[in-house]
Amino acid sequence: MNVQELGQIVCPDCRGALSWAGRLREGQLHQGHLRCERCGMRWPMKDGLPRLYREEQVRGTDRLMRVIYDGLPALHDPMTFLLTPVLQATTEARLREGYLHRLELRSLRPRPDGQPIRLLEIGIGSGANLPLIEKELPPGLDVELWGLDLSRGMLRECRKRIARKGHRGIHLLMGDAHTLPFADHSFDRVFEIGGVGGYHDPRRALAEMARVAQPGTPIVVVDEQLDSSRDYSLATRAAFRLLTFYTRDAHCPQELLPPGATGVQAEQITRFYYCLTFRMGAERPPLTAVG
């Protein structure tokens, strides 16, 4: 992230503008902190990775899941690849194809103001969606993808993927889905894959997704839910329970969508996963509490 790109993020406490105080490395923000020009809060930055959340607000399942992801970040992708066919009776690629088309990436067109198209993946993890997204985007389109995660370990794996595969226009930061460090209506697509069921307040996280999305843009959320239209063996139900150890009620949170949500589509894409798509109208959704 360079100084110019700093204008794309805001203070998660008050949504004030941020300024840089620290060292640069090859023109990029590296070691130091970001200071809010409105409330004066300082947000640390280490090795070029901003930490835009308050530790005391990370609690319950948020803290538990972060410990797990930080503990085994390098094993996440291999385990997903190997276990998906066993648990889901499908491949990882087909699972991801089940929700990717809901983002409608192929319909994106250049902005009239000449600014880049902006995508936001909440809970980007190791960046497994990056190659699929790049494949779906129209050729030559100027795109920025912002990836947010609470796990430093998973973001470290994502950085390795970006360096290895040569992905461009990717901006990573540590942040909390309950208090996104972005201005209202600042993204052309917003999505979250495999995490909302583990948030301590899914309603607030969904409201934050709605707040930062451009009016009318698809907002896509994917997580665990057992397909109720099928009969399963005791072993399959036990496997699902093990997968969703973090909650007693893993389901599509359609009832938690913010007021004004339109075009709601809730679908079962595999026997263990749903895909929830919605949009917000031209009127601003009620802002979530700041701080």
If you had to describe this structure to a student in words, what would you say it looks like?
The protein is of the alpha/beta class. The chain folds into 2 domains: 1-48, no CATH class; 53-280, Vaccinia Virus protein VP39 (Rossmann fold). The chain has 7 helices and 11 strands. The chain has helices at residues 61-71, 73-88, 92-100, 130-136, 152-165, 202-212, 234-243, and strands at residues 18-25, 28-36, 42-46, 49-52, 117-122, 143-149, 170-175, 189-193, 219-224, 261-268, 273-280. It starts with 17 loop residues before the first strand and ends in an 11-residue tail after the last strand. The model is unreliable at 284-289 (pLDDT under 50).
> Which CATH class of the largest domain applies here?
Alpha Beta
Please mark out the parts with pLDDT under 50 across 5 or more consecutive residues, or reply none.
284-289
Mean pLDDT: 92
Spell out the helices and strands N to C.
Answer: EEEEHHHEHEHEEHEHEE
Largest sheet: 11 strands, mixed
Tally of separate domains: 2
**Portion of residues within helices:** 25-40%
What distinguishing features does this structure have?
about 290 residues, alpha/beta, Rossmann fold, 2 domains, 11-stranded mixed β-sheet, 7 helices, globular
